[in-house]
């Protein structure tokens, strides 16, 4: 998952960084998070948090949608 995040999310954002300075921050929507395996959800949320804090990436927002599940709430609160 970490390799996919780097190749499909972080690298493209780095590539677009100069163009994104002229725009409002992009919003990425991740729908139906509860459809993922619990261990995948925790890993994905961790990776997204790392990306949000990465000073080498442009500012962006993430909107997560999910049914209320305990493991998702716990992963977000970490």
TrEMBL record:
It comes from the Eukaryota. Keywords: Repeat. It holds the Pfam family NPHP3_N. Residues 5-67 form the Nephrocystin 3-like N-terminal domain. InterPro entries: NPHP3-like_N. This is Unplaced genomic scaffold CY34scaffold_1334, whole genome shotgun sequence. It comes from Suillus luteus UH-Slu-Lm8-n1.
